[in-house]
């Protein structure tokens, strides 16, 4: 069995993130896309989309972590755990995310970019450090 934890750093809580097959990644930030990016044929007019952090708040003043309230739409999520660069991993959304009407694409990556998150019409409440994705395969 592969120890996927060897491919990431800054792990939030390894026993929890490895308690099922694969390795769970946690959300550090959520961004809204506020201005479109540009993609052209040759790359000379390639421009990043303008993003801003999505506001979060504590449900209770004594809470340690904040929550994002996401309406239906598109966002970008950023993970707490950067990759070591020693493998290309397959990343997929966790079942818990899918069952709440949200998803992101399954990706093969050797670095963890911001990942597009689609949220269904009813929205989603997402807690800081929530496990949203799972590394399910690796190729060195």
UniProtKB/TrEMBL annotation:
The protein's name: dCTP deaminase
């Amino acid at each position: 069995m592969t120890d996927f934890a060897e491919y990431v750093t800054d792990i939030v809580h390894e026993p929890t993130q490895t308690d099922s097959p694969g390795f769970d990644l946690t959300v550090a930030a959520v961004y809204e896309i506020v201005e479109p990016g540009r993609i052209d044929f040759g790359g000379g007019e390639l421009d990043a989309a303008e993003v801003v952090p999505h506001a979060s708040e504590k449900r209770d003043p004594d809470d340690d972590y904040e929550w994002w309230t996401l309406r239906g739409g598109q966002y970008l999520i950023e993970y707490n755990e950067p990759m070591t660069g020693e493998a290309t991993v397959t990343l997929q959304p966790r079942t818990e995310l899918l069952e709440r009407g949200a998803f992101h694409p399954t990706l093969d990556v050797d670095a963890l970019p911001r990942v597009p998150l689609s949220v269904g019409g009813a929205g989603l409440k997402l807690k800081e450090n929530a496990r949203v994705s799972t590394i399910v395969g690796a190729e060195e």
